[in-house]
TrEMBL record:
Biased composition (Basic and acidic residues): 183-204
Composition skew (Low complexity), residue ranges: 152-168
Region (Disordered): 152-209
Protein name per its UniProtKB record: UPF0246 protein HMPREF0762_01422
Naturally occurring in which organism (per UniProt): Slackia exigua (strain ATCC 700122 / DSM 15923 / CIP 105133 / JCM 11022 / KCTC 5966 / S-7)
Transmembrane segments: none
């Protein structure tokens, strides 16, 4: 993770109290116990252990969207968002976190190391999935009370449609990137989009906005999306995005690093175009990926890379 003052922290994490409890629990671990939890090298364990003990809730905060520096966040490149893009992600993006449960982009957070899949048995719970229960889901769908902004005033929780989820992987180095203008030539042809739209309307598989509790564009890894998916109601609509390449015998192959890159690029794409309808995602064409209508369904959008 990185500390940055490039943007001001605008809001307080909704589950700040629970995060403080987890941080207190982490501080109670011996170094070898923390290393076993983190499953990392000796050097990284010592560094992370020092960070945990130096972190003071409410002080030395960084906006969540700038704090994470994994591959997806590099390609999201939030440091170069304009004001409208920042406003969009603050309203629509939810970042899933092992320590904080769920965050808005401009929530102020401390540095930490804790994956959602860690076997942290806090207060008698089995793991972090058990500890967090339905709290991240409730934030994603908007079933939460008002939060506080950095001044202590009430701030409204983000509206639920559309909400994207991005898992937090605090590793690597932060960088700013931009989309290659030449890739715009590979956008979906109107005839393909119209054909896909008509075919889905005819099949009647995509629920209308009025019939949904919440529309969620899932851009998180399975480790993180699990904390939301298991609580979905029949009224919720989860739209999954698959980024793949055609391998041997025509089978789709998903390459980990490229998938992470594409997830970050998709958030940037949504912010730049102020996406409000999942069908608009089919125009995504970054990193050589292109929407494949034949392999897609209303709630499962497939993007193939040649």
């Amino acid at each position: 993770m990185k500390r940055s003052d490039a943007l001001a922290c605008a809001t307080v994490p909704l589950y700040e109290r629970q995060a403080r409890r987890i941080l207190s629990w982490l501080r109670g671990l011996a170094l070898d116990e923390a290393q076993a939890l983190w499953k990392c090298s000796d050097a990284l364990a010592r560094e992370s252990y020092s960070i945990v003990h130096a972190s003071i809730p409410g002080r030395d905060l960084t906006p969540a969207i700038l704090a994470y520096d994994g591959i997806a966040f590099k390609h999201m490149a939030p440091a170069v968002f304009d004001e409208d893009e920042l406003a969009y992600v603050q309203e629509h993006l939810v970042i899933l976190s092992g320590l904080y449960g769920a965050l808005r982009p401009l929530d102020g957070i401390v540095s930490y190391r804790l994956e959602m899949g860690a076997k942290a048995r806090i207060d008698g719970t089995r793991d972090l999935y058990d500890f967090w229960a339905d709290k991240p889901y409730r934030m994603v769908v908007g079933e939460v009370p008002p939060c506080l902004d950095s001044s202590g005033a009430k701030a409204s929780a983000a509206p639920p449609i559309p909400a994207s989820t991005a898992g937090s992987k605090p590793s690597g180095a932060k960088a700013s990137v931009g989309q290659d203008p030449s890739e715009s030539e590979r956008s979906l042809r109107p005839s393909e989009l119209e054909r896909f739209s008509r075919s889905q309307d005819a099949r009647g598989e995509a629920p209308s906005p009025d019939a949904c509790g919440c529309t969620i564009v899932n851009l998180a890894s399975k480790e993180y999306s699990r904390v939301v998916e298991r609580f979905l109601s029949p009224r919720d609509r989860l739209v999954n995005c698959t980024f793949a390449e055609v391998g041997n015998e025509g089978k789709f192959v998903q390459k980990g690093v490229r998938c992470k890159m594409a997830r970050g690029e998709m958030v940037r794409f949504m912010a730049s175009r102020r996406i409000s309808d999942p069908l608009e995602l089919t125009a995504f064409d970054a990193l050589g990926y292109r929407f494949d209508a034949a392999s897609s369904a209303p709630d499962s959008l497939v993007f193939l890379r040649e």
